[in-house]
């Protein structure tokens, strides 16, 4: 994940005891992360965010240890304010809508920040939760269905490892036993570190930790050899 740091000396204040990640949308049509970084990097904007995200880029405008001015309109009434949160703005790159690519980039950044600050999913919130402003507005339709989808993706694992079934024994043409052909089986795991496991019932393979998309790819390749993703 490549983040462009374009830190502004304006539109922020000292001190940030980070407990929340607050998700916004810019409300603009066909804007970009860089355009927003340029705009909110100037003096006297009276608002800002830590990060701006579009389909292809993430720009950071305020250091995380400082407060950006992104949800002060709630007056801390709901326990979420500028000085205990990181503000993330999603740009309206898709005719004012939030594209899947922008959402994917946002999910990746949010998960990184969650790991960094030990923030659970309940504390990844909308601007709405901080002030009751309808933001991110593009997620509000059908009783916030897209927001619920966003949160569900945070609950999903982004890494795992493959466990195979017990591997079948091999036999020669005359039906004489040759055992498990590990060299052949491991050819399905190109560039993946594997661990050979065994017990009284047989032999199986467990892989190193892998991105979830790689786990799903291997699941399809392995067919009946596949047992589970852990």
Automatic annotation (TrEMBL):
GO BP terms: cell wall organization; peptidoglycan catabolic process; peptidoglycan turnover
* Top-rank taxon: Bacteria
Please list the residue ranges annotated as the N-acetylmuramoyl-L-alanine amidase domain: 8-154
Keywords (alphabetical) are: Cell wall biogenesis/degradation, Hydrolase
Reactions accelerated catalytically: Hydrolyzes the link between N-acetylmuramoyl residues and L-amino acid residues in certain cell-wall glycopeptides
Q: Which GO terms describe its molecular function?
A: N-acetylmuramoyl-L-alanine amidase activity
Q: What class of enzyme is it?
A: hydrolase
Q: Kindly give the InterPro entries that the UniProt entry links to this protein.
A: Amidase/PGRP_sf, Amidase_domain, NAMLAA_amidase_2
Q: Which Enzyme Commission number(s) are listed?
A: 3.5.1.28
Q: Which PANTHER family match?
A: N-ACETYLMURAMOYL-L-ALANINE AMIDASE AMID
* Annotated protein name in UniProt: N-acetylmuramoyl-L-alanine amidase
